[in-house]
Give the backbone structure.
Amino acid sequence: MGKPRTEIPWPHKARTPAEAVKFIDTTGFCMLFPVKRVELPSLYYAVTRRHPPRWDSETEKMWGWKDELPRRRRAFYAKYFRTRGTFISLRMLPHFLAMRGTAARAGDAERWYAEGRISPAARDVWAALEKHGPMATLALRHACGMDSKVGNARYKRAMLELQCLLVVTHFGTEEESGAWPSARLNLTWRVFPRQTAAARNLSAETARATVAAKYRQWHTDAPPSTMARLFGWTAEQAAAALRK
């Protein structure tokens, strides 16, 4: 099977974390696995040269990078586009934060909650990470009082909410239950302080233009409607970003 149209030309398989970072830096932003109706390249294809995805030793190796690359401060990773696993390069991260208006600071959880920007559960998860530092899933749920089945559902919704706002990133793993290692989570402004500070000096309009230009490097004929759908922009914002 030939290369899927969403994937970009890449000279050889990405076999090491350093090569994975180079791929992420080149694309600017990409998916962990290919996702239907998300017109972005995937690290999976760069590692395996296969489509559709399947699990094997190459996939398992790549799976670990989603936690280790942010821990080493080499790339941002969270469930962002369509709440699916997404890498963002350090160069592009300030633009995404500025675009979303989410270059957070210490203490912002309460302010954002008061302004209606986040749910009560998201505020509690954020506050726990701010108080205790990076935490694995079970410990974080316990700190937030979300141990029950209902609490777990609230936790999952809150975590997706914070990741889609780019407030939280993966940050390594931890053995908690003797089974599959749990992801550790951390606050973006703690892991990537330089990129967060840089975002505060960017306007949303400039950020959107930079993101659009990067996307157009690999999707030269993408219409404004495609970018509006992918990035959550209005039609006017997409058109303005392409005029910059």
Notes: The first strand starts at residue 29 and ends at 31. Residues 17-92 form one domain. The chain has a mean pLDDT of 95. DSSP finds 13 helices and six strands in the chain.
